[in-house]
Amino acid sequence: MPNLKDDHNALREVLTHAKAIAVVGHSDKRDRTSYQIAQFLRRVGYIVYPVNPLVKEIDGQPCYPSLTEIPDSVDIVNIFRRSEYLPEIIETAISINAKTVWAQLGISDRASAQKALDAGLNVIMDACIKVEYLRLDVGNTRGE
Length: 144
Fold this sequence. Notes:
This protein has 6 helices and 7 strands. By secondary structure, the chain is α/β, with parallel strands linked by helices. It has a 5-stranded parallel sheet, sandwiched between helices. The protein has a two-stranded antiparallel ribbon with strand order 3-4. Helix 3 links the parallel strand 5 and strand 6.
């Protein structure tokens, strides 16, 4: 099953061409990894849409209860929820025509990955988007 995690060119391509990233499970707590990585993604120039049904806004930006509530198109759905939530999240990512689903470190589900692949999405699982961005030196290709 092609998880793009080990395909450096494909990862670089995904990160270079993406403009909008939905962060599912975005916390409003500054000490949480999802908060810190979302901040990083904003700093390097992505539009970040926080998705968390328990939070109304994060740092003055609206937080959406689900992917379907985001008013614009999303290139990457970056997932910070446990693996058991992946089937539902991936189903929704497919329904909003996201291009890529990216599950953070420690998060993966084979059946969900296959479903996303079958729907034509790029799939990255069990990988940190910030680590990959820095490792692949994407900032230089995005013109920062």
